[in-house]
Write a structure and sequence with these properties.
alpha/beta; Rossmann fold; zymogen; six-stranded mixed sheet; three-stranded antiparallel sheet; 242 residues; 23% strand; Pept_C14
């Protein structure tokens, strides 16, 4: 039996501009400013050009992302990657703007995909979503075959529309995301700490974020709660931020 071949490590080229846009509803979301301060410091340490927009309406969420996309495509220098941080009250697949109206996350995600943003084609696009995805609360649980993969070859001149994207949600589908009125959200604070103080490919860093969050026990409404992020990736290469 032949020995399995080690994976060839290929990383995204991060030598160009790193761009970040944060859209945050602070209204009725105490602790949001602590999250914004932490993110601003993280992006500064990681060499990002960062823009923050506070209290967007539902319509402005999409408008600000479209402006971000247009500015990226208008640049003459090389762009390495883009981060988009979305923070608001929410339900599964939707965010609530400052005006209490809802915007669909999918409408926001598609603005920077490989079809709609030329400068980010085949470049990493990372979305960080700090919002509830439902009303369920997790009290936690007590801890007490190989499938064949079909490889479909495709032309090297083309790329799928939705590759090179990373969606990082503060909680799993259907559940609440927790936020401290003074310290900010546990998800954002943990993510910032790991991203600024640890080295490695981003998916390994996110595994550490998940490990830390899953280990902690949060007390909300007088009850012990558990929460963990959810990570959805179509990255084709390793993404290093340090």
């Amino acid at each position: 039996m032949s020995n399995p071949q080690p994976l060839k490590e290929e990383a995204y080229d991060m030598s160009g501009a790193r761009l970040a846009l944060t859209l945050c509803v602070t209204k009725a979301r105490e602790g949001s400013e602590a999250d914004l301060d932490a993110l601003e410091l993280m992006f500064q340490k990681l060499g990002f050009e960062s823009t923050i927009k506070r209290d967007p309406t539902a319509q402005q969420f999409k408008e600000e992302l479209e402006k971000f996309q247009e500015a990226i495509d208008a640049r003459e220098d090389f762009v390495s990657c883009a981060f988009v941080v979305l923070m608001a009250h929410g339900l599964e697949g939707r965010l609530k703007g400052e005006d209490e109206e809802m915007v669909n996350l999918e409408d926001l995600f598609q603005v920077l995909n490989n079809k709609n943003c030329r400068a980010l084609r085949a470049k990493p696009k990372v979305y960080i979503v700090q919002a509830c995805r439902g009303e369920q609360r997790d009290p936690g649980e007590t801890v007490g075959a190989d499938n064949s993969v079909m490889v479909v070859k495709y032309s090297p001149e083309t790329i799928p529309t939705y590759t090179d994207t990373l969606h990082v949600y503060s909680t799993v589908e259907g559940y609440i995301a927790y936020r401290d009125d003074k310290k900010g959200s546990y998800f954002i604070q943990t993510l910032v700490d790991v991203f600024t103080n640890r080295r490695g490919p981003i998916l390994e860093l996110l595994t550490e974020v998940t490990r830390r969050m899953a280990k902690e026990e949060l007390v909300q409404e007088g009850e012990a709660r558990k929460v963990n992020p959810e990570i959805q990736s179509t990255l084709r290469k390793r993404l290093y931020l340090q």
